[in-house]
Amino acid sequence: MQILVLDTIHGGMEIGKAYQNAGHSVDIVDVYHGTTPDLVSAAKTKTYDLVISPVHLDPDHPLRSQWRVPVITHHEAVRQVLAENLPRPFIEITGARGKTTTAHALAHLLFGKGVLHTSTGTYSYPAKTLLWKKSITPASILPAARYANAMPGWLVAEESLGVTGAGDLAIITSSEDYRFAGGRKCAVRAKIASAAHAKRILVADRIFCNYEQVVHIEDVARCNGMECTVGVDGMKFILKNPLFLLPPYRMPLMLAAAAAMLLHVNPTPLNHFTALPGRMSVSHEKDLIVVDNANSGTNVATTLCASRYARHCAGITDITLVIGQAEGDGAVCEGFTPDQIAFAIEKIVPRHVIWVGKLPEYGTDAYRSVDGRIDAVCTTLEEGKETALKKTDKGSIVLSVKTWR
Questions:
Q1: Which CATH architecture fits 2-73?
Q2: Could you please report the per-residue DSSP string of 268-291?
Q3: Which CATH class is domain 281-402?
Q4: What is the mean pLDDT of residues 185-194?
């Protein structure tokens, strides 16, 4: 086949090479940064049998709509490339919120050898050895699957904007929605559609998904304080962990428990699961409580939760808030906008504010709302934390910077 692969920067090169290795003729072009102008010009004059396009590309992009041939997503292409050469079990996790925590919690429960692929890195289990750090585009599944197959072992993989559907179980962690692909697509609908081929699907609450193989978390799990009761396929467990009290952990831990039971794995080791770095983990520095909430999913809700948690742990209300969006790596699929950051500051009323990243434009409502409240402006999370430690003499520090970690 003559195949055109669009988008070289979100895994297109890996996908294109996989099809070339299978004997196809493949052109791979950049549709975002303009780094392959000659290839783009040549592609416009050719005829193709298949176009492989990232799910986030505008459907009206000329190179996507020019030919009357099948167009599949990168997710679907990876499912084709994997074919039957799959790790077992293979669990895929997507969603606007809670992907990484769900993935780590589920890996905590699985036995034997395996690979955990997340935005924090790709790890070999049970030693938790860091193998590499890659994006969570669907193409990054390919090297993770190869490594897991070589063990052989299981694979738990976090993916952005959907799943390949090749796995034994697909998990959608959040009903939080947003528009993408030039405003033409709805994120939740795209994620549900991508899971259609999965053997079983597990979804968080408030997600309307009517596939026959779907399990809705509200039908199998409920929490009461630190306790969570989960009943799946005739089995029932009562779990107890203080993290169930924290909204950013409650749903991911419920999903991990239910997923384990769908895989016939005992979920009770979750009783000893601890907070992940950057996801409400608590440390003590200079007699101060430091709550680390700096990750790619940081938003207003998690910032408010982290601040309540910090005040509870410290026993006093004094907080230094390190907040913002790291320039160059914090945008991910949806940003932490200046007006959202300003709203969080207004709600928390911290003693000190360390702003990380670019300040709001002068004269905007966001600028006026934080004018006079900011004690320092820093470029990176590390610089912000160091500044906060110097300025804080009591209470707590909350790190709430949206950034890849």
A1: 3-Layer(aba) Sandwich (3.40)
A2: GGGGG--PBTTBBEEEEETTEEEE
A3: alpha beta
A4: 97
